[in-house]
């Protein structure tokens, strides 16, 4: 088989690496890929949102299956266009992808399906949103405990947690007036802030059968101790002990099954990866958001542990045969992904800095360095994004996997490189 992976991040590198291990696969292409996917697959210079270019390449190369990694091409309808062209593709339709593409749509669906989530209000008019805050809180430093969210896609950054009235008003201004997140801010949500530990529960569904994957825990804030601005994710580990068997059954029965049924009723049947971002509150698990693809960086430690052939899972999903698939096999050992980032991320950063030590890190046992924001500059690997590498390791225990991952991190250097030092510490506590 020939398989095309669409995207250029750490998630796509992990997908290409795992798909290439299938004895059924002769060649893996990645469009556009990065410096790491160039080692494990063949890069194709087509951007992830170039729908016509991807379709043309898939036809020209007789691609058997296309796997869409990131959310943007899914929300643009790449799956629909490819199916219309007679091509086999893994991922949800444009209508189903709105579950991630619009936070307002997602919240309304959760509410109508009685799925536990935070209380919220949505606004098209920023002045109305600001008036709501001003009416409820009179002083600038009044504690508010709200989260302001841009409605559309914002690369994981369109969520601002606010502690005071003035912070909430500033967040509304940033999203709606300054358009910090572009068109994503044309509508916004004011949401009750939930407290507890976050967990990511991913499932693969063909619209009828749901196959739940082991729970992972992402680390969104930039700095140690969950401080600093929100990012696309600074690291993850899998499995997470905070989601035990009873909690997982509750998430399946109260969240995953109802959302698949609700999407079917809405005539948006869901096929692909369903990612529930959960807050484990004192009142039980509540949904923070839904994504419609593998999480990045959760995909990396998940696929590090997967023993079942990923191509078999992908094919069964496309063909509506997930019920016939044998139970998935997993390496029992936990795995951890530590994201190494560019200086300045999640704000502005400089690109083109030479990355050294990748060979030394790759030579370490039980370690895989997944590339995210990298590129080749002649014979040098350079940083080309905010989140640059996902250094992933598997070990006999969470602390052992953490030691292996950070040992590999120490081998890698470029000017301004940094990472959180506490990925997985919540599990150790």
From TrEMBL:
Domain ATP-grasp: 107-319
Signal peptide (UniProt feature, chain positions): none
Magnesium keyword on record: no
Catalytic reactions on record: 5-phospho-beta-D-ribosylamine + glycine + ATP = N(1)-(5-phospho-beta-D-ribosyl)glycinamide + ADP + phosphate + H(+)
Pfam family, one: GARS_A
SUPFAM superfamilies (alphabetical): Glutathione synthetase ATP-binding domain-like, PreATP-grasp domain, Rudiment single hybrid motif
Domain of life per record: Bacteria
Pathway: Purine metabolism; IMP biosynthesis via de novo pathway; N(1)-(5-phospho-D-ribosyl)glycinamide from 5-phospho-alpha-D-ribose 1-diphosphate: step 2/2
Enzyme class: ligase
Gene3D superfamilies listed in its UniProt record: 3.40.50.20, ATP-grasp fold, A domain, ATP-grasp fold, B domain, Phosphoribosylglycinamide synthetase, C-terminal domain
EC number: 6.3.4.13
Requisite cofactors: Mn(2+); Mg(2+)
PROSITE patterns: ATP_GRASP, GARS
Metal-binding listed as a keyword: yes
GO biological process: 'de novo' IMP biosynthetic process; purine nucleobase biosynthetic process
UniProt KW keywords: ATP-binding, Ligase, Manganese, Metal-binding, Nucleotide-binding, Purine biosynthesis
Molecular functions (GO terms): ATP binding; metal ion binding; phosphoribosylamine-glycine ligase activity
Protein family membership: Belongs to the GARS family.
Protein name according to UniProt: Phosphoribosylamine--glycine ligase
Organism: Novipirellula artificiosorum
């Amino acid at each position: 088989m020939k398989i095309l992976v669409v995207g250029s991040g750490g998630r796509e590198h992990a997908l290409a690496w795992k798909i290439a291990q299938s004895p059924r696969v002769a060649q893996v292409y990645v469009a556009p890929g990065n410096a790491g996917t160039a080692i494990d697959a063949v890069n194709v210079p087509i951007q992830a949102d170039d729908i016509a270019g991807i379709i043309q390449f898939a036809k020209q190369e007789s691609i058997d299956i296309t796997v869409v990694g990131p959310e943007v091409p899914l929300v643009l309808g790449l799956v629909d266009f490819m199916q219309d062209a007679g091509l086999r593709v893994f991922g949800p339709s444009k209508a189903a992808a709105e579950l991630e593409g619009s936070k307002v749509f997602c919240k309304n669906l959760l509410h109508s399906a009685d799925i536990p989530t935070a209380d919220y209000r949505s606004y098209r008019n920023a002045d109305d949103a600001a008036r709501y805050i001003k009416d409820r809180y009179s002083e600038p430093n009044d504690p508010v405990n709200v989260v302001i969210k841009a409605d559309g896609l914002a690369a994981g950054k369109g969520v601002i947690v606010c502690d005071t009235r003035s912070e909430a008003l500033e967040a509304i201004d940033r999203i709606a007036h300054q358009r910090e997140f572009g068109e994503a801010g044309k509508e916004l949500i004011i949401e009750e802030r939930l407290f507890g530990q976050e967990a990511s529960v991913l499932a693969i569904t063909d619209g009828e059968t749901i196959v739940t994957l082991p729970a992972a825990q992402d680390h969104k804030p930039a700095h140690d101790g969950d401080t600093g601005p929100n990012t696309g994710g600074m690291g993850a580990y899998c499995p997470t002990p905070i989601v035990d068997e009873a909690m997982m059954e509750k998430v399946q029965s109260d969240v995953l099954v109802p959302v698949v049924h609700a999407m079917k009723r809405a005539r948006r049947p869901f096929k692909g990866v369903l990612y529930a971002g959960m807050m484990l509150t004192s009142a039980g698990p509540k949904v923070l958001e839904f994504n419609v693809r593998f999480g990045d960086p959760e995909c990396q430690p998940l696929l590090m542990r997967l023993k079942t052939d990923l191509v078999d899972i992908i094919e069964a999903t496309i063909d509506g045969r997930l019920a016939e698939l044998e139970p998935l096999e997993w390496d029992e050992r936990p795995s951890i992904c530590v994201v190494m980032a560019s200086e300045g991320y999640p704000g502005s950063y400089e690109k083109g800095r030479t990355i050294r030590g990748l060979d030394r890190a790759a030579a370490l046992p039980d370690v895989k360095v997944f590339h995210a924001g990298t590129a080749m500059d002649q014979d040098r690997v350079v940083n080309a994004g905010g989140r640059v590498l996902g250094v992933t390791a598997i070990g006999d225990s969470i602390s052992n996997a953490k030691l292996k991952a950070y040992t590999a991190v120490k081998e890698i250097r470029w000017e301004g490189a940094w990472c959180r030092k506490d990925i997985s510490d919540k599990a150790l506590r």
